[in-house]
Amino acid sequence: MERARTLRIRSVWHMKNGSLLVVNTLPKNDPAVQAAIGALTAKAETGEVMHTEDMKIQPCVGCNFCWLKTPGVCAIRDDYEALLRALLRYDTAVLIAGTALGFLDHRAKHIVDRTLPLATMYTHVVDGQMRHIPRYDKRFRFGLLYAGAGEREYLTYWMKRFALNLGGNSLGAFPIEEAGEVSLCV
């Protein structure tokens, strides 16, 4: 597949060693976004790019249906279901997001909060810390590229905790201009 096509709403390509999902919450025509996606996908031979700009993704309402009533399935019916399925298909996910008040903006936070169906309501102790038991036998790898005035140290710490809560590993949090650093980890 040609690289120019990877900037569509959704694109797929093939890789030998693992796979990559790029979830972009920023405008898809932003030059920084295009450069970041180019850097991330340059070495990857398989994966998918999802632009959420045209998707309808509601915030989590905390109903816990995904734990109790419909295990693993969010009760909110919107475009997020395709994104959740994509998270399960790929080894690594990189979120490209804006910031607000030094943290993720609302669009990215909606996506992260809606990962709740990936865990169960049951908990256990791991390395002296209480953790939800993952719903799937999968080791997620998450990374964050952020645009704006994000607090890098805090975002890196937060990404580590987020990945840990889903039984995965963090690639870290990087300003969007440093997309090449994340691409080395993919």
Summarize the structure.
With 186 residues, the chain is α/β, with parallel strands linked by helices.
Q: What share of the residues does DSSP label as strand, in percent?
A: 25-35%
Measured distance between first and last alpha carbons: 19 Å
How helix-rich are the residues, as a percent range? 25-40%
- Strand segment count: 9
Described by strand count, sense and barrel closure, the largest sheet is: 7 strands, mixed
Mean pLDDT: 87
Number of helices, counting only DSSP H or I runs of 4 residues or more:
5
- What is the H/E order? EEHEHEEHEEEHEH
Secondary structure layout:
Blueprint: E1 10-13, E2 20-24, H1 31-42, E3 47-51, H2 80-89, E4 92-100, E5 103-104, H3 106-113, E6 119-126, E7 129-134, E8 141-147, H4 152-165, E9 169-175, H5 179-185
Helix pairs in contact: 1-5
